[in-house]
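Homework help board

Subject: predicted structure for assignment chain

Our instructor gave us this sequence and asked us to write out the predicted structure in token form, then describe one feature. I got the tokens but I'm not sure how to describe them. Can anyone check?
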Amino acid sequence: MGDSPKAVVLMSGGLDSATALAIAQAEGFATYAITFRYGQRHAIEVAAARRVAERHHVAGHVVVDIDLRQFGGSALTADLAVPKGRDAESMSAGIPITYVPARNTIFLSFALAWAEVLESNDIYLGVNAIDYSGYPDCRPAYLAAYEQMANLATRAGVEQGARLKIHAPLVSLSKAQIIQRGLVLGVDYGLTTSCYDPAPESGAACGQCDSCVLRLRGFAEAGLTDPARYATPHRAANQPN
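My token output:
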């Protein structure tokens, strides 16, 4: 690992970020995971991120505390209802209330700072532009623009000509393809959590929010059963359409 190039990986504890971590490691990087406790209602994801990081023996893992509840503006950081029971058409119609303003820009900025300290030129994140809920900061155009900005913003870029690369290996994959890729790489999806509104004590997923629906559909389309815990059985959701 000492001779391996370093990569910073944004780690939420969810399915996508766990897969991105496994891909970074498969591509030969020593991985440094960064997780955010940002005032989200589903803070149980931090524990999931720790589980995934431990299983994959990351070289380092930091949990950064910031409080986006001061701004609110999202069902994840304010007292707003999480949408549930929506179909695919509803989920694709506009930017949902679960969008956290500027979240990926904030997260990538912290990752960029750590990457510069680590002398790393690579950042991985698990954003997806296929099976996603309309977030503007999950699009390839956004990632390309951020990468361009980052290469203008660091001492390594200005003085050494270092070129930062933002890797989004899942951006054009369906949820089923992401799951299949992760399983090949040894990801244990039972360690992950994706729910926007999990049970406060048990952490069981609701099975009805957009994130749960997309996750369940992905496992169904892959011909698999989701190993995550749900508050109520979701056999029907595990059946392909």
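Reply (TA_rk): Your tokens look well-formed. For the description, you could write something like this. The longest strand covers residues 30-37. That's the kind of observation they're looking for.
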